[in-house]
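fwd from M.: "can u put these together and see what the complex looks like"

so here's what she sent:
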Amino acid sequence: MKTIDFYFDFGSTYSFLSVMRISDLAKQYDRQVVYRPILLGPIFKSLGWETSPFNMYPIKGRYMWRDLERRAEKWKIKFRKPDIFPANGLQAARVAVANAKESWCVRFIQEVFRANFELNLDISKEEVLISILRQVQNSDPRSILQSSVEPSNKDKLRQETELAQKRGIFGAPSFFIQEEMFWGDDRLEDAFEWGTGKN
Amino acid sequence: MKTIDFYFDFGSTYSFLSVMRISDLAKQYDRQVVYRPILLGPIFKSLGWETSPFNMYPIKGRYMWRDLERRAEKWKIKFRKPDIFPANGLQAARVAVANAKESWCVRFIQEVFRANFELNLDISKEEVLISILRQVQNSDPRSILQSSVEPSNKDKLRQETELAQKRGIFGAPSFFIQEEMFWGDDRLEDAFEWGTGKN
């Protein structure tokens, strides 16, 4: 089956919308989603930004939260503005990278995003991740957390982030159909249409 | 008739797409477009940017040009990447502000955008604006240019730009349905849908 590469950061607001929408679209377009967690932090740093542009520029931030609220309503996605923004998604990203091939991983990703953007939980906290892991799979959550911080897995996440930047990524969500890149939840349909003759 | 406020900058790439699309949409949604030229320069400066973010961050710029090309194709709009970016649209904006009530003004705006983004002409040049003015109206182009640089008209453009920023604008195009703001050509349909019960 043809694939769509889906790059996201667990703290990214518009990535939340895409995580909630992409599996239905993938069915509709008969594509397989390759979930690729990355860290926007190092990418933003290389552009000279110490935090999200939405925090650096309050006028942009105010608009983004209103826009997100409208978009969530449009797609019937439950949303509340989290108290912490951007959330630190490092540990969640490590778990997702280490367990990319597990059948429960997509649900893990979805539940972490819901925890952040619907339930207003702090996803940097171990107990939050443990509770999500308990919901979505049957192994010992602590051993999953432990194996995710092994040096080889930490490296893997770093490499994924570096590769993302090499491919031209400067924000999330970003989607690739082969080497054609689309940025933003508002380009998700365009990405799926790409190459079908409908774009 | 209900209105939509359409804020744009003559050098803005995505404003080009909106200028080419908005009059058809306005007919469809039975709205009157209020064209409101502003200058992004002073707004960007207040955010600490000396030029377009697309020039400050080449990785963003590369993506934007590709995205613009794809979007133009999608909407069947002729486009070529201009040699000068961002173009200096100061003089064109002054003409548009001074003549907002003239029936030819919308065509003037459209032709200036075409000059910049389809014909690769330098819209800061007087002869380019004169040639466009000749196309779209019957008065003396030079007297129109002269009256547009009168202090009261220069002030008017400055005030429009300041008002735009007060309303929350940080980029172009931006649209308002009353005080509800939408940013980007990709939110143009959403703006028209706003309040119709379809949004």
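replying to her w this: Strands of chain B lie at 3-8, 32-37, 174-177, 180-183.
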